[in-house]
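Collaborator request, handled under Task 6.
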Amino acid sequence: MRMGHKRLRFVGLIAVAMVLVVACGSSGGGTPAKTFKIGLVTDTGGLNDKSFNHLADVGLEKAKTDFKIQGDVKESKTGADYIPNLTDFASKNYDLVIGVGFLMQQAVGTVSGTFPNIHFAIIDGAGTDANGVDLKHSNVVSLFFKEQDAGAMVGAMAGWLEKNGKSKKNQHVIGAVGGVSIPPVNHYIAGYKWAAKMEDPSIKVLVGYSNNFNDPAKCKSVAKAQIDQQADIVFQVAGGCGLGALQQAGQSGVYGIGVDADQKDADPSVIASALKKVDVATYTAIHNVVQGQFQGGALTFSIANEGAGYAVDNFDLPADLKAELDKVQGQIKSGALTPPADIPA
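Structure tokens returned to the collaborator:
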């Protein structure tokens, strides 16, 4: 690194080239460190889902700025694209290939086995076989989240509003619109239902699935069915499809709750968003590779390590509700409260 710093005193092209030495370290002989290549493969929702694919790209862009890496993205249109997209990056000797989404588990398991010398990371899953069994490849790191932590925060908010007559219909009914019934989706809903009932034991929580992450019309119809059953708060857990649920909440004059990213701009009805910091996880995985600290296994992001949380959106939070949310968040962070991973009865 000393040689890198000396060369930085020069001006012109040599100085520019040596920025990489300072950013990424040197090989010890003054040779500029290589430019790390990172490949990101989205799930079928694509970069415009305003949700976890978008957030993964945010993390990649931050890493490109901070580490001067080369970052490239391939958007999957269908599940059939997973293996070809992952393989394309791996076959070109990318330093890290990131798959976004639980549905990519088997593809990551297959491709990581074919390319044992390439590092892989997967959001919301592991590299598995066809039966969903983790192959525990040493070149794969799983990036997991306690989505139930974030779900609990917006569930506590919904339950408090119902209990205190501060919602729209005040019928003690709320809804959750899931995409596909997979663990990350159900974790959110589990925390949401659990915390809502903690705040308002009389509350009824309607849960429905669109079986889709991309088509807003499908989530819109599920949300409408719940609103027709008196739900006056709708929590979307369905990626790009769930934007339709938020739009339906707005059209029906009830409250909506966003997911993953801060979705306050998705519709004026959005009073809060359950935050899953996929950008932080993606950035962390890239950082570890750049610093030579990659380890296979799993990293878990939660309220305790600020990898999950919530945002208040188009809503003026009453002081007593703010105090309650602060209390609940503090208890989750300390371990005094543990939101469940499975949806309670």
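The cover message to the collaborator said: "The first strand starts at residue 37 and ends at 41. Confidence is low (pLDDT under 50) at residues 1-28. Please let us know whether this matches your experimental observations."
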